[in-house]
Write a structure and sequence with these properties.
Helices cover about 35% and strands about 25% of the residues. The chain is α+β, with helices and mostly antiparallel strands. A hairpin with a 5-residue loop joins strand 1 and strand 2 (about 30-40). The mean pLDDT is about 85.
């Protein structure tokens, strides 16, 4: 996207705007490695992240389980107080796939390599992405 109007940056994510995150060891010392992430997530990024979530709905009255799916749906619409919902992330890797745009490692940034990140490093990156995007 070519921005010709400075006001556009108030409304659109600039694809070239990234934050470089220095990875810190357990003592808080810079490891010399870094990851670049999108400085802000766009509406499209938020949609992609939402699509990576799982929502489970369950009627909290066991006697209703004998109903057909259609009957349960209709009942749930009329009695939302009887529906228990849980939304869970499939994994934090969905956020990493969307947000990471580069890194200092000598391997390509792709889903396969993101999956190979050790949890302590992935968690550190996710925490910073969350700070940059408080609504994710």
């Amino acid at each position: 996207m070519v921005q010709t109007d400075a006001n556009l940056s108030r409304f659109f994510r600039d694809p070239s705007s990234v934050e470089r995150i220095s990875l810190l060891d357990t003592e808080g010392k810079d490891t010399g490695e870094w990851v670049e992430v999108k400085s802000r997530l766009s509406a499209g990024d938020q949609d992609a992240l939402s699509n990576a979530l799982i929502t489970v709905e369950q009627l909290n009255k066991p006697e209703l389980q004998a109903m057909s799916k259609q009957q349960r749906r209709e009942y749930a619409k009329k009695h939302p107080e009887d529906v228990v919902k849980a939304t869970m992330k499939q994994s934090q890797t969905a956020l990493l796939y969307i947000a990471i745009v580069g890194w200092s490692f000598k391997i390509e940034v792709n889903e396969e390599n993101i999956n190979l990140l050790l949890p302590e490093w992935a968690n550190q990156i996710v925490d910073i992405i969350d700070e940059l995007n408080p609504t994710t």
